[in-house]
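DM from R.C. (forwarded with permission)

"hey, sorry to bug you on a friday — could you get me a structure for this? deadline for the figure draft is monday and I only need the backbone to look sensible"
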Amino acid sequence: MEAGLRIICFICDWAFPEWSIETPPNVSVIQVKCIGRLDPIIILEAFARGVDGVIVVGCKWPDCHFIDGSLYGERTIRLLKKIMALTGLETERLRLEMVSPIENRSLSSIVEKFIDDIKDFGPLFKGKEADKELLFNLQAAEQAVTWSRLRMLSGRERKLTEKVNVYGERISQEEYDRLIEEALEEEYIRSKIYLITKGKPASVEEISRRIGVDSFLVLQHIVTLRRKGLLGVDRIEGYTPLYKALEVG
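My reply, with the result:
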């Protein structure tokens, strides 16, 4: 087991008796009422602060004390893994482990197995120039999941995929996954634009070079951000507008 890795374990109050919760010293255990209540921002913030791995331990359905809590927890982890892939962060650093009261498993063995599986990745931040880019990407991911579009789509997954609309239509799981992936990528890029211009005003070309996205697509995202009241024109230099993020709330 890699003792140097910093690990956080979020565990449902109902998954293990409190007296049985034992983990290695490099693991911080945070008990929650239900993993379905976990906010994805908390996990992204943990990674941004240098945590090397996060494991979430919940109850298997239908053992969930809150009936559907485990299903909501699974949805949150799926969303997080998709956005982690966009940031360049190894998705294996986040794991969801579901347990049942009838299983003879210890929390310590579950966590130790997780640490052993990710030990080859090493520390998240390695003291290199690439750390700055990863941190920026994680901050953009945090910003993206705070915006209502992703929360709305994520919160309505079961309604969209399991129920028919007024026209008798239902979205397939594959179609929903495509929609959420498109929304994730778009909101992630917009978050990068927002964060860049929050630091100082920037032109379309400057933003394009910084995030590696075609300038025409950058301009399209800028139009959307301006329409939402998140971005404005700070000034015009020659014929080039410089955009600045607007404070919200």
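R.C.: lifesaver. The radius of gyration is 21 Å.
me: no worries. The chain is about 50% helix and 15% strand.
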